[in-house]
Amino acid sequence: MKKGIIKAAAVLIVFAAVIAAANSLFVIKENQYGIVREFGRIEKVISEPGLYMKVPFVQEKGTVTKELMLYDIAKSDVITKDKKSMIVDSFVLWRVIDPRAFAQTLNTSASGAEDRINVAVYNAIKNVISSMTQTDIIAARGQELTNLIVSNLDAINQYGIEVTTVEIKLLDLPEDNKGAVFERMISERENIAATYTAEGNSEAQVIRNSTDKEAALLISEAKKEAEILRAEGEAQYMEIMASAYSDELRADFYRYTRSLDALKNSVQGGKKTIILDKDSPIAQIFYQY
Question: What is the spatial distance between Cα 268 and Cα 174, in angstroms, rounded to a whole number?
């Protein structure tokens, strides 16, 4: 009887030890933070993965993910600086960067964090959009607009979380005024195009006038040079002729060759008969020779 009681007590002790050991050991994975609480108070925060121990029945463990999480924000209407309404549809990527602050302020609740993010992002988008005109917003779509919004989210860090990016899925106009806005934008672009065309035509005319002026000057200079050369050539010709006719023998020779040239030109083009007066210069050739 006594041995049976001792054996049962030993079994109970072993069973209690096994339960205590099972309740004191826990594993933290690589994508987790570990939080150990003692009577509700945070006793320890674990950042590295591995096997850890806690005081059984006194301490309890919790985990917080390290992974990047996505939160889809509902569409919202915002007003631009020039009092135009726009619809914004966005999503957020966020993660826990301070598990202790996250646990103390939000009790490690992801839904609680997303509620805070929803309010903060909406206010940031509203502040950014309301400080820009509709044209500036459209021009800044993409990384520039994202950076402006994220820079307005520093207050969210007090909850131990960080918003890494805010991506705009849709940035559009309300259906009731979309057509009017598009027509105005088209009209503005047409006015800009007309202005550029007029400026281009004006510059082209200036270039054309300058080119015509330069061409006229070049032609005038060329004609002037030609007239000078022609006058010099005629002067040289006259000098040569004067020199040739200054000698009687040369003069007779030139008269003779010119008479032959005239006779030759007269009989060009087939069989011809030439009737000459005996006093003509051409007839004199035959009388003399």
Answer: 96
Is residue 159 within 8 Å of 113, Cβ to Cβ? yes
CATH code linked to domain 69-172? 3.30.479.30
Instruction: Kindly give, in sequence order, each residue whose CB lies less than 8 Å from that of residue 131, ignoring residues fewer than 6 positions away.
Output: 81
Residues listed for the chain: 289
Residues in contact with 162: Cβ distance below 8 Å, sequence separation at least 6, in sequence order:
94, 95, 96, 97, 156
Q: For residue 119, what are the CA distances in angstroms to 103, 155, 169, 211, 270?
A: 20, 11, 18, 66, 114
Give the tokens for residue 85: 């309404």
Nearest CA to 144 among 130, 161, 128? 128
Please state, in angstroms and rounded to a whole number, the distance separating the CA atoms of residues 64 and 86.
37
Question: What is the 3-state composition of the chain as percent helix, strand, coil, each rounded to the nearest 5?
Answer: 60, 20, 20
Domain spans, the chain = 2-65, 69-172, 189-246, 247-288
Residues near 228 by beta carbon (within 8 Å), at least 6 away in sequence = none
pLDDT tens for 194-233 read: 888 888 888 888 898 888 888 888 898 888 888 888 888 8
Helix or strand run (H / E) with residue 142: none
pTM of the model: 0.54
